[in-house]
Design brief:
The chain is built from 15 helices and 17 strands. With 463 residues, the chain is α/β, with parallel strands linked by helices. The chain folds into 3 domains: 15-155, NAD(P)-binding Rossmann-like Domain (Rossmann fold); 164-323, Dihydrodipicolinate Reductase, domain 2 (2-Layer Sandwich), CATH 3.30.360; 368-460, ACT domain (Alpha-Beta Plaits, 2-Layer Sandwich). Strands 7, 8, 9, 10, 11, 12, 13, 14, 15, 16 and 17 form an 11-stranded mixed beta sheet that branches. A 6-stranded parallel beta sheet has the order 3-2-1-4-5-6, with helices on both faces. Strand 9 and strand 10 (282-293) form a beta hairpin. The protein is elongated, with a radius of gyration of 25 Å. The protein starts with a helix and ends with a strand. The structure holds L-homoserine. L-homoserine binds at residues 183-185, 220, 225, 324-325.
Length: 463
């Protein structure tokens, strides 16, 4: 009886978290992908080796790597490491305890590697947001079936400990909202547009020249990257995976320099936000450019910085800010996951101990309500406003304010000048305007002969 009790005490002492047994032997790592992040992880593990040993009681040791080009100078020393041309071979290597997947992409080698590693009983750490956002349900099943952790702190907001904050720090609270500024490229572009009055395409080109934006920037500027991150955050916040294809996504290509000027006149700033919240109709989850009050904490987050906000029943609102990308911040997040594994402190994927919950679908954005900013380019002649407001009246849409700016360049400071017969008209609706009514009204307004350009509609949020 006594010995059984002692045995169970010992087991409980050894077992921390969901899956791992604490050990003092080195934790041997196989790293797949030696790009900016992979090289950053190798450098951090080397420079902080003593500190990590003190914190975990173990040596975190890279023993094997896989990348495309063996000869490339990455600023790290890979001599003495086992090199694999095929990343999948890392799984068979009996010297590798943990797979670090830094290849990227929702399919192909990255997905196969993670699945194979879990099936082989090897814990996985990844920075791959697309993989978790699209396949988080199936991967959680594998992780649970094989009792192997899959950790992904670096997948959301780079160096900001967003996953830990939600899954551990806020584990006691019922979350009502989650989201934030989740894409540094968009935040940089919107910030520069606001500060310089330059147009989107000019700022994007400059950002590409400086290496802040990808040569193919569509994943960032069309909102997909932020949607991957929001899908993961919402899954963690609400305890079950969210179907990625149900998240509504709008990018920032249509935002013009003049929208920033008008927003500023009205006391707002424009930010690309990912937001998920529980409503009476179900889960709302969308990535959209928004007008937010200029004094809101999120409005102060500029440049390449990210910020994650959450609101819980007991905790109220919190915001954490930091660098959402780059070798250093991302390596810090990847290594924090390795520390968890070394300490035997690894959580289940969606932070729940029950069976892996089935994915939930976000409700269509058309079922929601919001306040809207609508910018129109219209002919400057009598009756135009009457034509437009007649459409709004027919859809039951009430205006809160309306601004017609004169066409002179000096009034709009750095905005473009307008042909004298066309003027910008900015309408702000009441909050609780039906999204579907607004979409239908804007389509009809856009078709009016007096409206000379595609209307720009931006939702207003108070994050
Ligand atoms: N491309 C992302 C961004 C960083 O611009 O924030 C990696 O997710």
């Amino acid at each position: 009886m006594v010995s059984l009790h002692l045995l169970s005490l010992l087991i409980n002492l050894l077992k921390v978290g969901a899956y791992n047994i604490v050990s003092s032997s080195p934790l041997r790592l196989g790293i797949a992908g030696l790009g900016t992040v992979g090289a950053g992880v190798v450098r951090l593990l080397c420079e902080h080796a003593d500190l990590l040993k003190t914190r975990t009681g173990r040596l975190l040791q890279v023993v094997a790597v896989s990348a495309r080009d063996r000869t490339r100078d990455r600023g790290i020393d890979v001599t003495g490491l086992q090199w694999y041309d095929n990343a999948l071979d890392l799984v068979q290597d009996s010297n590798v305890d943990v797979i670090v997947e830094l290849i990227g992409g929702a399919e192909g080698v990255a997905r196969t590697l993670v699945e194979k590693a879990l099936k082989a009983g090897k814990p996985v750490v990844t920075a791959n947001k697309a993989l978790i956002a699209l396949h988080g349900y199936e991967l959680a099943m594998l992780s649970a079936d094989y009792q192997v952790p899959l950790l992904f702190e670096a997948a959301v907001a780079g160096g900001i400990p967003a996953i830990k904050t939600v899954r551990e720090g806020l584990a006691a609270d019922r979350l009502l909202r989650i989201g934030g500024i989740l894409n540094g490229t968009c935040n940089h572009i919107l910030t520069v547009m606001r500060k310089t009055g330059q147009e989107f395409s000019t700022v994007l080109k400059e950002a590409q020249d400086l290496g802040y934006a990808e040569a193919d920037p569509s994943t960032d500027i069309d909102g997909l990257d932020a949607a991957h991150k929001l899908t993961i955050l919402a899954g963690l916040a609400f305890g079950r995976p969210v179907a990625f294809d149900s998240v509504y996504v709008e990018g920032i290509r249509h935002i013009a320099a003049q929208d920033h000027i008008f927003a500023q006149h009205l006391g707002y700033r424009i930010k690309l936000l990912g937001l998920a919240r529980k409503t009476q109709n179900g889960l709302q989850a969308h990535v959209i450019p928004c007008l937010i009050p200029q004094y809101a904490p999120l409005a102060q987050v500029d440049g390449v910085f990210n910020a994650v906000i959450a609101e819980g029943e007991f905790v109220g609102r919190i915001m954490i800010e930091g660098r959402g990308a780059g070798a250093g911040p991302t390596a810090s997040a990847v290594t924090a996951d390795l520390v968890d594994i070394a300490r035997g402190h690894a959580m289940t994927l969606w932070g729940v101990q029950s069976e892996v919950p089935e994915p939930v679908r976000a409700c269509p954005i058309s079922t929601g309500e919001a306040a809207f900013y609508l910018r129109l380019q219209v002919e400057d002649r009598p009756g135009v406003i009457a034509d437009i407001t007649a459409v709004l009246r027919d859809y039951g849409i009430s205006l809160q304010s309306m601004l017609q700016y004169p066409a002179e360049k000096e009034t709009l400071s750095s905005a473009e000048s307008y042909a004298s017969s066309y003027v910008p008209l900015v309408l702000m609706t009441h909050h609780l305007t039906s999204e579907s009514a607004m979409q239908a009204a804007v389509a009809q307004i856009g078709a009016l002969r007096v409206v000379t350009d595609t209307p720009v509609m931006i939702r207003i949020e108070t994050p």
